[in-house]
Amino acid sequence: MIDLTARTAKFANNYGYSDVYPYEIVRVVSDKTLEVREMKAIRDPNWKPEIIPGGFSGHCTNQDEQRWIIESDFDRPVRRIRLGKKGWKDKYGSRFSLSEKPRKFHDYNF
């Protein structure tokens, strides 16, 4: 595993329960403060969720294979995240993880 720091990472993925949202790092304020902006994530038209009956209304059998087209979205607001004792968070408590690449994941089974 590569040890990423605020100065070497390019992305900060936001973990919201079981979903993941891609953010790009737009400015390094310090080793413990970053400015990030959410990226546009469009489901790849070549990937379709396979839903079978089960659960509340259905169960997606191929959600671990999902693919997304991710690109910068300059219309989104810039947010600050800070490194604390429990990792990277914004002022609302949303959790972030630094990464070499952006990641989008939608939990179809939740």
- How much β-strand is present in the residues? over 45%
Helix content: under 10%
Classification by helices and strands: mainly beta
Radius of gyration: 16 Å
**Main sheet makeup:** 7 strands, antiparallel
Which runs of at least 5 residues are low in confidence (pLDDT < 50)?
A: none
Query: End-to-end span in angstroms?
Result: 29 Å
Number of domains: 1
Give the helices and strands as they follow along the chain.
EEEEEEEEEEE
Task: Give the strand order, joined by hyphens, for the main sheet.
Answer: 2-1-11-10-9-4-3
Q: What is the average per-residue confidence, as pLDDT, rounded to a whole number? A: 93
Tell me about this structure.
With 110 residues, the chain is an all-beta fold. It has one domain (11-99). The chain has strands spanning 11-16, 19-21, 23-30, 33-38, 40-43, 51-52, 59-60, 68-71, 78-84, 87-89, 95-99. It has a 7-stranded antiparallel sheet with strand order 2-1-11-10-9-4-3, with no helix packed on it. Strands 5-8 form a two-stranded antiparallel sheet. The model has no long low-confidence stretch (mean pLDDT 93).
